């Protein structure tokens, strides 16, 4: 951990910079994959599963038998945990539904907006040793609340062609429409362009490696929406004298273990807190299974002593962290000043991992300072808000001249005429 | 207008395709402009104003004197119209504010989300003969309701260095922070990267020519958010026997006059309605000042006779029009079936131009079938929704095991430990 004591404000802009990775060199290869999937559909997915996942698949789609068998393979305790998390996420995201509110802006001029599900969505869940069923919950629950008709899951198969039982179990709970054994850029291509087995979707969600990241960027240029621009995960902790250094260290490590490129920042007004947290980091790091990742991430991370609470808040707002933990006694005082953050954890007993799994908030959040302008995934991400308006004869008589005057001033005579021709008819009758 | 009678469903996918334009060839030139602006800041903007706008600017920013002088140059009638539109847009967008709702997902586990303004936003308003003060209202009103601190307006100057008085007047009403005389890709670069006079913003809004479109795409890859992917404007009208052919023709023309690449579609179950609308199009077209644009747009447009109301709805949902007008007597019956559209106009007296200017709904909407997954601009576009959570000691005891079980199953031991270390402390006390 890089320690910085009282950096000058002028140095902050550099301190909040994340390391950038140029992934453009991956684009040509990914565009080739896209072409193959467009031309050969399912057959391309089967070829690429053999090439990249080392498996000859019998079927691209998980079968009902596989899904049914998964249920018995998931330990009871894990099922209960998944159901509890599901319930909490459902409760929180259901409250995000926006009721239709009709507004009469002038007599006879009524406007409202209505949330309508995105018909077809695709969820990508990475493979590997850690089965990210928690991410599947975070995407699948709001998709279900929204009422998306087609919910396609793509996830790479293991070498034996299987998908982790916890993923299949969670997908089945969520009523996912199709479970496709496909990973990488080819999975993104299949969801964006469609194949015989995979319907083309309108929006693609989910994390992934750099191939998936670039593939999502490329399809978004081609008109398929994506959830969020991707970046390494990150946490910023603001700690005062009341903070428990062991808790703070545990929170920093829970972010650091994600990967060597994770970003971890500690802000405090107390050098002694910083020192104690560092000691705890060393102790706790030793026993972690993902110690190598965490140690690498810590090398690039920052421990900064600042002069006041306001400075910590200002620095944090400039950094715009994905996760922000206020390990302070008086979080109520600070929380209203937060302008840029993905998700905020208040007080000493709200660890980030609560939000990662089960408290109810979403864990798909803006990284890389995108929290300055982007929100995390929510029910909003699975709907469009369509506006409606109904104008009565009287309404048009009330608003008509305003429209005519503005259209004329903008030189758009046909816009004006669409009103004038109606007003003429109304005055004639 | 291309007339198609009862096309087979299999042909629909082709009919809803918009002509695509490959703008990639513009990228190298725009990246050069970006580089110039990054290196030379204001000076680059001054050079490029001379090169592209043909003007040697005294000052990049509109002065207080210019802004004050504008007020007297705007006719009283237009001022009143702008104020009426402002009031309606304000009323409708204010209702979009989301109250903070705290949800206790389990005892002691409280979650909520809060809308927080994007600090710095940039609005681009194109120049040319038509001063798009209506677009400035559509972007500036929600920015103001949201509480954005810095609202930067970029718009290209006329050859005499001036900005249209209606733009200055509207910007002043809206409390725009800075009015910058810059257009094209250089304006986008200035707002994305910052110059001496233009603070870098976090999100850029507004329409523009193809240079602006590509520049927005490129800065969005670099982490600056943008409002919506761009495309030519479009309207789809569903008309039954009750429709007034002259009204329908006027609505189609008010879209067609935007430009030669505008998309105009008429769906009806009645060949006779189609014929009467065509006759009206010919009559009304003749007297339009923007006749040439409109005539070109009509050449590419579609008049389709379908077999039933349901077919019209299905086609429209597949097309996903930016604007959808239901020129039918029983719009209540159809409107619940709309799944993809930007903004919907109901009945015979709700012309699209009402929404373009003054009814209160936003006119910055998804084109090019993006309405399948995107919403138009709204108050949401100017805020982030930050989630918060507060977990009490009791709450952590209630939810702790769920988190531990899930973290362990995902192989993320440090995530588990952030909970375990706290539970241990609670049990010790």
TrEMBL record, chains A, B:
Paste the cofactor note: Binds 1 zinc ion per subunit.
Residues annotated as binding substrate are 233, 255, 258, 323, 356, 410, 415
Enzyme class comes to oxidoreductase
The molecular function GO annotations come to:
histidinol dehydrogenase activity; NAD binding; zinc ion binding
Give the record's pathway. Answer: Amino-acid biosynthesis; L-histidine biosynthesis; L-histidine from 5-phospho-alpha-D-ribose 1-diphosphate: step 9/9
Which reaction equations make up its catalytic activity? L-histidinol + 2 NAD(+) + H2O = L-histidine + 2 NADH + 3 H(+)
Binding of NAD(+), residues: 124, 186, 209
Descriptive protein name? Histidinol dehydrogenase
